[in-house]
Design a protein that fits this description.
This protein has 192 residues and is of the alpha/beta class. It contains six helices and six strands, in the order E-H-E-H-E-H-E-H-E-H-E-H. It has helices spanning 46-55, 76-92, 118-126, 142-151, 169-175, 183-191; strands at residues 15-18, 59-65, 99-103, 135-139, 155-158, 178-180. Strand 4 (135-139), helix 4 (142-151) and strand 5 form a beta-alpha-beta unit. The protein is globular, with a radius of gyration of 15 Å. The structure holds magnesium ion and zinc ion (ZN).
Length: 192
């Protein structure tokens, strides 16, 4: 039996948009960035959650703000090499991410940095079957949830570790369609 009822905002989801830091991997301390693969640590059961989504037939699309590029802390090539290693690690766990979009810009410079929606719009272009109506955004920042709201896309807020929660977490929890403590819990409760 499927626990997700037809009235759920999650009953018709074919595309799962994931934030990266704080959803797939441990969020670095505020003001620090994942500058290289050595700093990338998967959150518990993240690989299994993504593999479960794959088996359920969903496409997985990562949308991540990487302002550290604009700050000169690492290069775009560095971001891309982290994503290659991430996908390689996931493949070894039977999990697949279908596409990764990142914003390398600083605040207020572009349309792609979340809560801007340009990364999502690019994904809708690249995956013509995807739309706000058959997608969900899962993120741990207010900007993730605000981007989803602008698109009228359902969203799930990952509350994560209360000690590491950013300002705006309470608002994000209110704006999101649901909350969960982790990607694994979100997938189990709402998507599979
Ligand atoms: Mg995040
Ligand atoms: Zn951008």
């Amino acid at each position: 039996m499927n626990a997700v009822s037809a009235k759920s905002p999650f009953h018709n989801i074919d595309y799962v948009f994931l934030d990266r830091d704080g959803v797939i991997n441990q969020k670095p301390p505020e003001g620090e960035y994942i500058s290289c693969w050595d700093r990338f640590h998967f959150l518990p059961l993240a690989e299994a959650a993504i593999a479960g989504l794959n088996r359920s037939g969903r496409r997985i699309i990562v949308v991540t703000n990487q302002r550290g590029v604009a700050l000169g802390l690492y290069s775009e090539a560095g971001v891309q090499s982290v994503h290659i290693a991430m996908r390689h690690h996931l493949a070894a766990h039977g999990a697949r991410i279908d596409a990764v979009y990142y914003c390398p810009h600083d605040k207020n410079q572009c349309d792609c940095r979340k809560p801007g929606t340009a990364m999502f719009e690019q994904a809708f272009h690249d995956f013509p079957g995807a739309s706000a109506a058959n997608s969900v955004m899962i993120g741990d920042s207010l900007s993730d949830i605000e981007a989803a709201r602008r698109l009228h896309m359902p969203s799930i807020f990952i509350e994560g570790d209360p000690e590491k929660q950013k300002p705006g977490a309470e608002k994000a929890a209110l704006l999101a369609d649901a909350t969960a403590s982790s990607l694994a819990e979100a997938v189990r409760r709402y998507l599979i």
